[in-house]
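Technical note accompanying the year-one report. For the benefit of new consortium partners, we illustrate the data format agreed upon in the data management plan: each record pairs a sequence with a structure-token string. No post-processing was applied to the example shown here.
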Amino acid sequence: MSKRSHRIDCRRVYEESPGKDGKRVLVDRVWPRGIRKEDAHLDEWLREVAPSTDLRRWYGHQPERFAEFRRRYLEELREPERRQALDHLRELAAEDHLTLLTATKDVEHSQAAVLAERLGR
């Protein structure tokens, strides 16, 4: 399951890489359960771009809250540390195909999807 936005895809970190992912960047604040770092096959873990712990806990991956989560998360992305991380993702996307990885089961309602949309503009 992947979502395409120009040269940016979103995928679960637990999925096998098809080998055409380009740069693979984990965008979760917390390391995914049950996966060893050496088995994750990623280029970077950019936790600075992830939603705050408070926002993540409030959202609780409840799809009915996604619109409000998206709005709040986009606000958070304006903070200097997150903006810098977002700029880094833009640079990676400009250089190569970029795959944003998350442990979330519902990738379409995740911060990775919001980031892909934001970067695709």
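Partners are asked to follow this layout when depositing records. The first helix runs from residue 53 to 59.
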